[in-house]
Hints:
Blueprint: E1 7-12, H1 41-47, E2 58-63, H2 64-73, E3 82-85, H3 91-105, E4 110-115, E5 119-120, H4 123-140, E6 143-148, E7 159-162, E8 173-180, H5 185-194, E9 197-207, H6 208-218, H7 220-229, H8 238-248, H9 254-259, E10 265-270, E11 274-275, H10 280-286, E12 295-297, E13 300-303, E14 309-312, E15 317-320, E16 325-330, E17 333-338, H11 345-354
Parallel strand pairs: 1-2, 1-4, 2-3, 6-10, 12-14, 13-15, 14-16
Antiparallel strand pairs: 4-9, 5-11, 6-9, 7-8, 7-9, 8-10, 16-17
Amino acid sequence: MNRPSSVYAVIMAGGVGSRFWPRSREKNPKQLLEIVGEGTMIQNTVRRLAGFVEPKNVFVVTNRLQRNAIVRQLPDVPAENIIVEPVGRNTAPCIGLAALFIHRLDPDALMVVLPADHLIADEPEFLRVLGTAATVAQTTGALVTIGIHPTHPETGYGYIQAKERSEAGPEGVYEVKTFAEKPNYATAIKFLESGDFYWNSGMFIWRVDTILAEIHRSLPDLHAQLLNLQPSIGTPLFEQNLETAYGIIRGISIDYGVMEKAEKVFVVKGDFGWNDLGSWDEVARLAPKDENGNTIAGKVIPVKCRNNYVHTADKPVAVVGVEDLIVINTPDAILVCKKGMSQDVKEVVDHLKRKQMNEFL
């Protein structure tokens, strides 16, 4: 596996995972939970980088509520590498802030940006693709992203359209033609049939000097605030200066703010069992099942029921004569949801916020 000698990882871990309520909460969100298999999602994200990025070169961007839990879960990552945003401002400020820290340590570093809460089944293939992307980013000075080969017309993901591959380029590496927002179903079918669209994984690889230069070109206001912060990194003034900067910085995604405007962008095709686990339906689909199609975790009593996903944290839960349900029991809340509708769990969280029932968030 080819890779430059100085590689840093940035793990974006500030989300709440509202579609995974009631297990996912503000203080203990999706990325800090064991959702599928052993280990929390953020632990597995860092673990699978072993041999590619040293733990001391891993940075995590999160918020105040989650910082201490992340420090506990990632004992090999230096505590000073856990960057706390005062408030979420989407991915461009998050990535720009992390780039400042890395550039201060190594202006020639390569930077790998990953979400904290994705599932990857084929880890050796993932590392091979990451190695290819790193080589392209290092040698071309381009912005590189990983596109997932689509298996169905998914409406919950953004898409990346690729140009035809140049014979001079590595296998599986394409120039990006355009980025597309989450489509409706009819458009998603067209994307799938065209053969040149990939799911946008939200994974990025670039040189740290390249991304800072691109932020300067495309988001000059953000870049100006980052420059103001730079001298105070590692000093007692940093936290106060960061609060001030984040009061000015506007929220914008790295895709919309930078990637869509950059001139040299490549996508590397990925086919390594990727899933962003965006809902309880995805978890239920992937989880092992008994002879009746049920997945049960904890003290569950299934009676004459089929195709259910039931998870209980403490008290026994009995499900009798029901089909196609998702049931999540926690010490202070219960979710009962029809399969196929778990994307709407976010509306439950929105309701709790409106009613100021913050003890359940």
